[in-house]
Design brief:
alpha/beta; 8-stranded mixed sheet; 4-stranded parallel sheet; 14 strands; globular
């Protein structure tokens, strides 16, 4: 399974594709591709993966199955030369649907030819029963809730360009529609938090997941920390009700924003909950390359601080035997263990 996508800025290749290639695994072996939501940092390169993973089912948030979102896609197709959709998840999603239409034109079975999983809470996206000595495996979507999808449709309508207004880049909506995933494989369980926020009421975010009657009763050993470890996605009850004690937790930084994530406070909160916390890169970015003294003096006069936000693609690999208690942890690129 491949969940979301990003691009290696040096090779311009989707990172998941490059990783599987190094392992000698063809994309034809992928069973499921999930795009958790339509923010740029989760979608870049996803269309290329969908095109080449021809045997994989595709799943995305049920909030995107609407006339409003289809209209946004049409606006993107008509405005390719404008700044309205430049580098937008809207454009990437349109390319994904084009790739799926090409599959159907080639006679690919219907189960593999479209987003046959418009994911919502409690939906099984993939299931393989135990047989011939091979362990059972299951992928379950935990979100978005039905109430969240309803709210999202109203918000998508507000994003549509109005007659007489200047064209502008389409603003991407909230993280409420993100698809959080639960994975069972043998004796191992993982919770992938996507960018799902904590929730401001019982009908949305992690609050809706925790109150749902369809969420698994078991506890996971692996956590992809929601929304880059930010305070807005922190729900303490996840740790007490859905995770084993001291799970293996991996957080992905977002260094491009005005406030890089996770912050120092976010990391301190994380390591209080588990000693097994890892980050795929440096949250605060990297030290910039030093220039000539005169240039450095000018930069110090005009900028309080500087950081390089484009560093090596980091990678945390957790490898389990399906029966083992603890994983083997390997760090690549700029990945690091979070410590006090």
């Amino acid at each position: 399974m491949i969940v979301d996508s990003c691009i290696d800025r040096q090779t311009r290749m989707p990172v998941a594709k490059a990783y599987l290639t190094r392992l000698g695994v063809a994309l034809d072996a992928v069973k499921l591709v999930v795009v958790t939501h339509w923010h740029d940092d989760h979608m870049r390169g996803a269309a290329e993966i969908v095109r080449e993973a021809g045997a994989a089912r595709f799943a995305c948030s049920a909030a995107l199955r609407s006339e409003e979102f289809a209209t946004l896609l049409a606006c993107g197709a008509e405005s390719m030369t404008s700044s309205m959709t430049s580098s937008s998840g809207i454009d990437e999603f349109r390319k994904i649907l084009d790739a799926l239409r090409q599959r159907r034109a080639r006679g690919v079975p219907a189960a593999n030819a479209g987003p046959d999983h418009w994911a919502t809470h409690g939906q099984v996206l993939y299931e393989r029963p135990a047989r011939d000595g091979v362990s059972q495996a299951r992928v379950l979507s935990l979100s978005p809730s039905a109430a969240t999808v309803t709210r999202a449709l109203r918000e998508l309508g507000q994003l549509l360009p109005q007659e007489g207004e200047p064209k502008r880049r389409i603003r991407q909506g909230a993280n409420q529609v993100s698809v959080a995933l639960w994975i069972d494989a043998g004796y191992q369980r993982a919770l992938l938090g996507s960018d799902l926020p904590a929730g401001t009421g019982p009908s949305g975010g992690w609050s809706a997941v925790l109150s749902s009657s369809t969420r698994p009763a078991q506890r996971a050993r692996i956590l992809k920390v929601p929304h880059h470890g930010s305070q807005s996605a922190d729900e303490p009850a996840i740790w007490t009700e859905m995770l084993e004690a001291e799970p293996w937790a991996v957080v992905t930084p977002f260094a491009s924003g005005r406030t890089p994530l996770p912050t120092e406070a976010d990391l301190k909160r994380l390591i209080k909950r588990t000693p097994n916390a890892y980050c795929t890169g440096r949250p605060q970015g990297w030290s910039p390359v030093r220039r000539q003294p005169a240039v450095e003096r000018t930069l110090r006069e005009v900028a309080r601080s500087r950081r390089t936000i484009l560093g090596p693609v980091g990678h945390v690999r957790l490898r389990y035997s399906l029966e083992a208690a603890d994983p083997t942890v390997e760090l690549f690129g700029g990945a690091l263990k979070v410590s006090a």
